[in-house]
Each structure stands twice: as structure tokens, then as C-alpha cells.
Specification:
alpha+beta; 6-stranded antiparallel sheet; 1 helix; about 20% helix; elongated
Length: about 130
């Protein structure tokens, strides 16, 4: 009977260890530089797991200058218009420098999702030299 209890305890400890290991693998983390201003969102990512958001209040006719490059892992960015529609969606692996024209006034949301990622995301209002 004692041997059976020992095996049950060992089994439970192994299960607990696996659970701790798996939860640590997808832990939300950020290492690098992050700047959130009213006219810019700048991420220089050394390592990132998880999701980050920033909002910009923009006017029709504004232009966003974007530098987006994924060096390692999975990095995904989406820019949503005030009505919730997506005006940009990408992974930073193809076009790395581009602009997005803003067609309506309102608050735009930038959503960044990362998994073991390294890279750069710079979103600036055109004419902003920060």
C-alpha cells in the first residue's frame, strides 16, 4: 500500500511540474523599449510574448508612417478604424516600411500580438520625427 501511495505522489508531482513548465512557456512578457505617445507607438522588441494595445486619435487626411519588421518568432499587427474595421493587418515579414492613409476622424487601435518575437514596430503620424 505504501508503494502505491508513493507512486501516486510521484505522478502528481510530475503532473504539477509539467503544468508549471507549460504555463511558463506562454507567459506574457516584454523585453525591449516601448513608447506610447499621442502621435506615435514605438516598439523595439528584444523578446515579447502576449498582446499589447495602443490608441491614436487621428483625423481624416492623416498619414501613418510604419516600420514593421519581424526578426524572430511570430509578430502580428492590426490597425483598427473607429468603426472596428481593419485598415491594416500583417506580420512584418514582407513589406517593412509603408504608409497608411487615414480616411475618417476618430480613435484608431493598434493591436500587437507576439509569440517568442523579436523585431521593430514603429507607427508614427507623418511629419513626426521622434
Amino acid at each position: 500500500m505504501l508503494k502505491k501511495r508513493i507512486w501516486i505522489v510521484i505522478f502528481l508531482l510530475v503532473l504539477a511540474g509539467i503544468a508549471v513548465f507549460l504555463s511558463g512557456c506562454n507567459q506574457v512578457s516584454f523585453s525591449g523599449s516601448r513608447v506610447k505617445n499621442p502621435d506615435a507607438y514605438l516598439l523595439d522588441i528584444k523578446k515579447m510574448n502576449g498582446t499589447d494595445l495602443h490608441t491614436l486619435e487621428l483625423c481624416a487626411g492623416d498619414v501613418l508612417q510604419i516600420q514593421f519588421e519581424t526578426e524572430k518568432g511570430d509578430l502580428y499587427m492590426e490597425i483598427k478604424a473607429p468603426d472596428g474595421s481593419t485598415i491594416y493587418r500583417g506580420n512584418g515579414k514582407e513589406t517593412t516600411e509603408f504608409s497608411v492613409n487615414i480616411r475618417e476622424n476618430g480613435v484608431y487601435t493598434i493591436v500587437v500580438e507576439a509569440r517568442h518575437a523579436k523585431g521593430i514596430i514603429h507607427v508614427r503620424l507623418a511629419g513626426d520625427n521622434q
